[in-house]
Amino acid sequence: MPEPHLTELISASDLADAIAKLAQQIDRDYAGQSLVVIGILKGSFIFLADLVRQIQTPLERIEFIRLSSYGSGTVSAGTAKLELGIAEAKIRDRNVLVVEDIVDTGITTQTALDYLEAYRPAALKLCTLLDKPERRQVPVAIDYLGFTVPNVFIVGYGIDYDEKYRQLPAIYQVGEV
Ligand code: 5GP
Ligand code: MG
To answer: Please, are residues 99 and 51 in contact by the beta-carbon 8 Å criterion?
Structure first.
């Protein structure tokens, strides 16, 4: 496959600034409480790693769940399948913060939230680095948002194209602007 052209959309330093602000917001909202952070694999892993290092609120645990929505291409399959779940006891009556890379159609994120809600957390909130509202098919309530992005295909900072480019320290759009 020829290397696609990548155009930087969000720089590493803008990401760091936004994440510091998100962490401050989270710390204000959960003052005097503790949190369970649940990342949605794989795309959120770098965002989560940077975010939790800025959060002062005590974290009871960091867990991951995994859903699959996209195949190897760039078009959503329309459904999300749970591939790695979590024990109910880790969620029940806890303050749960879900960390997502990007809310696009909303199908994956909403599937994840519905799955976790069924385990009756004390509170369930969503923090996503990116929101692509133009493509939404299912409404998703976002509690903490880094950036709104246009309807372009994104890579970098944990987010892949066919498993590649996750290692890039900034957010790029595939193709020319
Ligand atoms: P949704 O179910 O909201 O359509 O999208 C869920 C997942 O699709 C996201 O968590 C992300 O992993 C992937 N996704 C959505 N938009 C993009 C994009 O622009 N680039 C890449 N690489 N993945 C995306
Ligand atoms: Mg994802």
So the answer is: yes
Top mutation candidate among 74, 79, 101 for ligand 1, by most atoms within 8 Å of CB: 101
Amino acid letter, 140: V
Distance from the CA of 144 to the center of ligand 2, in angstroms? 16
Is the Cβ atom of 126 under 6 angstroms away from ligand 1?
Answer: no
Distances (CA, A) of 159 to 31, 89, 102, 145: 31, 30, 9, 16
Parallel/antiparallel/unpaired status of strands 6-10 and 154-155 = unpaired
Active site residues: 104
pLDDT tens sequence across 6-35 = 999 999 999 999 999 999 999 999 999 999
Task: Measure the CA–CA gap between 95 and 115, rounded to whole angstroms.
Answer: 15
Q: Is the CB of 39 under 6 A from ligand 1?
A: no
pTM above 0.90, yes or no: yes
User: How many residues in the chain?
Assistant: 177
pLDDT digit string, tens, across residues 59-105: 999 999 999 875 545 555 567 899 999 999 999 999 999 999 999 99
Of 146, 174, 163, nearest to 14 by C-alpha is 146
The pLDDT value given to residue 77: 55
- Ligand 1 atom nearest 107 alpha carbon: 2
